[in-house]
Amino acid sequence: ERGHGPYQPHEPGYGLYQPGYSPYDDQIPDPKSRTLAIQNAKAYLLKSSTTSGLNLYDHLANILTKILDEQPTNAVDIIENISKDVKWAHFQKKMDTLRDEHEILPTFEAAEKRKALFLKANEEGDEELEEEIGETPLPNVMETAFYFEQAGIGLSKDESYHIFLALKKLISVQPIQTCRFWGKILGLEMNYIIAEVQYHEGEEEEETEEEAVTEEGGNGVGEVENEEEEKEKEDEPPKSTYKPPPVIPKEENGTGANKYVYFVCNEPGKPWVKLPPVTPAQIVCARKIKKFFTGRLDAPVVSFPPFPGNEANYLRAQIARISAGTQISPIGFYQFAEEDDEEEEVEGGRDTYEENPDFQPLSVAEMVDSLSAWVHNVQSILKQGRCVWLNPLQKTEEEEENEEEEKAEEPDELPQELQQEIGPPLLTPLSEDEGIQNIPAWTAQPSTNLIPQYAVAVLQSNRWPGAYAFASGKKFDNIYFGWGHKYSPENHAPALPPPVQAEYPSGPEITEMRDPTVEEELAFKAAREEALAAAEEEEEEDEEGAEEDEEEDD
């Protein structure tokens, strides 16, 4: 039969509520039964949990020990929190090994990389250099970031300041005349922070001379190889007469698409890397493809049509395209120099300008209402891939003398005259930019409508998402934050491969003959034997006639 207490005979605690065990009973309980009940209760409390592996007995003991050691006020109200703390301390990792495992936080790693940006070297020397130069080429990145921040554009203050310090380090290493924070292009693995600089005149000439020397060296090696090839031409099969189109040379450093030099780095504190000059072939091919950047300059660019270079060349081509389409300034801030001749306009337009000392800035409302208040201050790139058109068929005097004989032999094959490409001149208003279907090329708006007297005029490019410009009084700047891709209303469609070439026309001169039958072979042999026999008879008759003639002469 079931007992009156909450426990069954086989459960721990059985017998505590039986007569004689109550603390109010006058009878003294049996010591053996009491000891058995205590052992059963303790055994129940010592049962380990299948989830955490703990038991209630040790947990309660630890809770009481913690309460007696700390003696908190109103312990009964926080008993649940004390229980959680005891459990958490049990599962906390104990660093009791011979070697402690030090966890390096990401913030610590980033601080170590940027530690060099905050180190000062030769403070007195830097001050003397600044006094000699007068104006430092270091741009005020924090001021530019402040104006763009009014429109919700830009990076965090920490990153902007780190870029500020990185540009200062770049200027201290390179002989730079002007420097500007161009922007940030995003990548799949790492990003690119880009600085736009101009070298001093002497330094730029040295670089061009080095490039010319390498080209001359390459031509010398080619002459030796040509002599060896001429000796082997006799045994070679005939070669194709196809002549590839002439290679359009790149623009010289300091002009056109190569007017500025660009340095990039993945993060502030990492070394700056100089990008190579851009070529027309790279710009033309970059217009036909769309690739995401990886963040590694040596990464190959796998595309069709094949891109002539790696990611560093592709990045440089995209920077040239973005700069040509989105670098703008308020109208009247720049003006052409009075010394410019009309010849420059005929050859391809003026490519230089200067600041207008009499510039009077427009109000923010006027800058926002009309796009005619803004102009392009970078030359546009033609379809040829250059800012100034070059006739690829025009040859030098030496080349003309060498090809006079070829022209005399083939007078019919005359090259067709190419039409000169003419782009919009410098300082063209933005109102002349073509839109994208029903989308205007630019969107202008003030930074705030609540306090218009302190607003900043902000322009956003819809053709190149991520390109922005601001103007506030006599201050303005351009910046880019994006993936480096041009907006396309439709999905990107790669160029199709060229059509398959036609087969060689089949004619009697290349048609295989039918194999003869046995009867035809026998007839052919019989006819050949008859012909040989007739030829032999004729020879014999000729010999006999010759002998008779000799006898008559004797």
TrEMBL record:
Top-level division of the source organism's lineage: Eukaryota
Chain segments carrying region Disordered: 1-22, 201-252, 395-417, 527-554
Pfam name, any one: Radial_spoke
CDD domains, per the entry: DD_CrRSP4-like
GO cellular component, one term: radial spoke
Alphabetic keyword roster: Cell projection, Cilium, Cytoplasm, Cytoskeleton
A Gene Ontology biological process term: cilium movement involved in cell motility
Location(s) in or outside the cell: Cytoplasm, Cytoskeleton, Cilium axoneme
Acidic residues: compositionally biased ranges: 202-214, 224-235, 397-415, 535-554
Protein name: RSH4A protein
Source organism: Cepphus grylle (Black guillemot)
